[in-house]
Structure formats: structure tokens, C-alpha cells
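Inputs:
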Amino acid sequence: MVSAKLRGVFCPVLTPFDEQLRPDASRFIEHCESLLHQGCHGLAVFGTTGEANSLSVKERIQLLEALLKAGIPPELIAPGTGCAALTDTITLTRHAFQSGCAGALILPPYYYKPVEEEGLYRSFATVIEDISDNGLNVYLYHIPPFSGVPLEIGLIKRLVKDFPHNVVGLKDSSGVWAYTDTLLKTLPDFGVFSGSEVFLRDNLLAKGCGTITASANINAPAICSLFEHWEGSNGISKQAEITAIRRAVQKFPLIQALKTVVADNLKDDAWLTVRPPLVPLTPIARKSLLESLAKVGYTPPN
Amino acid sequence: MVSAKLRGVFCPVLTPFDEQLRPDASRFIEHCESLLHQGCHGLAVFGTTGEANSLSVKERIQLLEALLKAGIPPELIAPGTGCAALTDTITLTRHAFQSGCAGALILPPYYYKPVEEEGLYRSFATVIEDISDNGLNVYLYHIPPFSGVPLEIGLIKRLVKDFPHNVVGLKDSSGVWAYTDTLLKTLPDFGVFSGSEVFLRDNLLAKGCGTITASANINAPAICSLFEHWEGSNGISKQAEITAIRRAVQKFPLIQALKTVVADNLKDDAWLTVRPPLVPLTPIARKSLLESLAKVGYTPPN
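Outputs:
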């Protein structure tokens, strides 16, 4: 893995499926290439938005191999590798590391709850010790609404202290700005990404590293522009514009809504498919979403 | 799979690990053989208690193969096969079915939440349709404290209506008796197991099928005796005795507490090992647990 600290706008890439609900590698590669072309600094494939928790270990490995084979540089990819099962997390993290990826975004094990801090510490430590290489860049993934397992600041301090070369950052998808703020005040050099571009300006003001945001699937140029030019009054108005677009999308179930917009932008209804337990938006909801987006001035990239 | 309706006391078997945190097939087989010898009507391997959600698909398949190779009859085994990822659930359910197991105990996909009833319906339906054989016995696994995804009665009615040969029962680990009661009143022929022996007598009074209970790992003879002789005043006192033992154990984290008791009964500390994110009980907690059990009259099986 590269040692340079990651910064910028990373896209947790949507995963397209074919009619048999199998991952569609061809559309996935095209979308990844397009996102990089639009200015994304990296691809956080296999996150919550990518329906990665509905994919098997083998499916994730095959999709990553397909991206690499298509020529997407591994140093621009930070895959999600955290699973409920410790052995699956080790398998995926090792694969990402050996593939030369920029980092691994690791969920805590998310079935057993509540768990003690010591148990979470051992979960992350076991993965890091198994790979045992200072080049492994671990980004912790804090997303209590889905994982049900929050990562408390005390745990993070302990991991950073014991694995300073490995535990280099975190994605905060709690939706609670105070968490990011406290974390950056406690660990000023920690690579903290906000989980939504709604907090991008706040994140950068607090000396965070940027955002890993689902909306980059549909609005990357505007979000990347804010990342580059966030200071001053122009930054405030840019933030307001992208926030309005995010709010319009997240009135609907987010993953399905983003797939709806991609399908509409590309005129390709194959993008509407989601894997259970998700269900696509109804035609009425799709229409309402697209109308809401038009009202807040959304224009498709390219 | 066998078509006879399952009834009785099923043990969600604890999974032993070696020092490298690998599943210990040899101790697992011995424990399964002992549980059947103690009177358990079946083995619900790879449940929550079995730390199955900390095991990879491959580890589960290898352990099941080891049980079968050791001569444990598949018609006495109902493995847990529900994972976060649809494809993993299909792989494990198909393996259990093709191995001739009595049934498959299936968790809902437990990462994405909240999800619509339609999404849960499609999750279960996709697994059933993929296997597409009336001999597949599906037991739904209702355990909101861990899954975060409750199975509402409306969903169950719909699944039973559309897959009457396949969706034959449910394990209720909600801890809410009203759920079992409502379910049995709504679907009188449904094979409902309580998730704790605390509700065994109530379950049988309401014409349920018995219990799939973690405590069977340490107290199977007494629980099985209640199942056989639950009617009348003798049943009431038997229920009180086993309930007191359960309450003493569940003052502690349940899985670790049960492993502590097995380790003590067998004089084999290897049984204390748990896989992260769980952590073993402290020596003080272990002592306190064993003293509490002695006070309520617990005696080890055999």
C-alpha cells in the first residue's frame, strides 16, 4: 500500500447487478472509470453504498480483480473489507493489501452486540497482526446506524497508539458532526473523512482529509470543486448547493435513489437493480426524486 | 431433508476454538455427541450461540462435513445458514439441504436496516426459489437484539402462504413472549420454537414445538425432562428449576458464560476461548458464575 496520506473526495461506488442479481463487472468498471474522470481522488469500493454487505467474499475479490485488470490503479482504490466474520475480514484485507490498494476501510464485526471495547480492539488487532506489515493502511469505518457497533474515541486512541503505522484514519458515517470534531481535536493527525459531503467544509475547516460520500456517484464534479475551493464565501455557497442536492436525494432510500439517478443519467435501467434485502424505488418515487433534483439545480456530470 | 415436523429440545451448539482461534472440529464433534447422548432431539449448529457469525462460509461447511463424517445423522442437525450476504445464505442453505439436514435456520440479512417487508420477503424467497425443492425445511430466525431486523407476523404469513412446503417454522429469540403467542394464534400449525427454555412450558401450552436454547449446552437433561413431562404441577416446578439456572447464567455474557461452564464440567480450559469481538470472562466473573450456579442447584450432565 502507498504511504502517502489519503485526501480528497472518495466515492463509495455503487455496485450494478444483472437480471440474475449477479454483480455486473462491466458496468462497474465503466462507472469507476467515469468517477475518476469526473475528478474523484479515489474509489472506496465495497462500502455500505456498494451493497458490499450483500456480496460474498468471492464476489468482492472477483470485482476488485476485474477493476485492476481493467487498468484502474490500485493506489486509487480503498476497498471496504470489514465483515461480520473475523476470517472474512482477514481474507479481504489481505487481498486488498497484496493488490497494492491505497487502504482498507474496515467495519467492526457487526453481528454481536453490545461488545466490549477489548473485543473490538482484538478484532482490529488480529487483522493487523495477521498481515503484519507497516504498509497496511487501515481506515476504521464508524457507521452505527448500520453496524450497531459504535467505535468509541478511547478504542481509536488505543489502536492508533499500538499500531501507529497501520491505523491511519476513519470514515465517520454517524451523521453526528460532534464525533468528527472530537476525534480531530483528540487526534489532530488522524485521517478523518466525513461520511457525507454535507460536512465537507466543516471537515476541512477542522483539518480533516475530505469525504467518502455516496453522493459522489452522481455529483462528483461539484463535490470535488468544493474540496479544491472550500475557503471563503464562495466555499459557503458551493457547500449550500451540494448540500441541497444531497438533501433531495436522501429523502429517499439512499442506495436505490442514487441508482435511480445513475440509471437516468446514463439512460440505462439496468442500474435500477438492487440485491435483496433492498428493493428498487417505485416508478412514482423515481419520478418524484428526479423532479426534486431538478428543482435544486442538479445537473448530471459530463 | 426429512419431512417430519421437528419437535423437542435443540441445542445451538457452542463452537470451540484452538489457540490460533481456528474452529476445533474434534472438540466440536465430542460436544455434539455428548449433547445427543444427554437427550437433545437435535443440534442447531451455527447459531448465534455458536459464534457462527464470526465464522466464514468455508469454516461452517468444513465443520458440518466433520460432524457428518463422524457419523452424526444429518436428520438431527438444523444448521444456521443466514448471513448478511444473499449469496452466502444460498451457499450454506444449499449445502445443508444437500447434506440431508433436518432444516435450515435462517437469519434475515442483518446489515442493511431498516428494510421494507418486500425486501425481506425477496431475501427469503430468493433462497427458497434458488434451491426449489419441497424438501427444503426453512426455519426463520427472529432475533432482533442481534439482527436489528425483526420478522413481522405479516411477512411470515406471506412466506408461509407462498412457500407452504418450505417455510415450516421459526425460532423466537426476541425474548418477548407475546410474539410467540401471537404467532401461534395466527398460524397454529407453524413450528415455533422458543429461543430460551424459560418459555418452554408456555411454548408447549400454546402448542409450540419446543425450544432451541443455548442453555442446552450445559443443562440438556433437565430441559429435555421438562419437554417430556411438562404437564401438571410437576412441570411447573421443573420449569422453575431450569429457569433459575438460566437466570444465573445470563447475568453474564451468555456465550462466554456457557463456555466457562463447559470448560469447568470437562476440566478443559480450551473451551474458554472465544473469537473476537467476544472476550472471555475474567477469572473473577468465572468464579462468581460457578458459585451462582451451585447456589441454584446446578449439577453438570453425566
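Remarks. Chain B has a mean pLDDT of 97. Residues 8-230 of chain B form a domain with the TIM Barrel fold (CATH 3.20.20.70).
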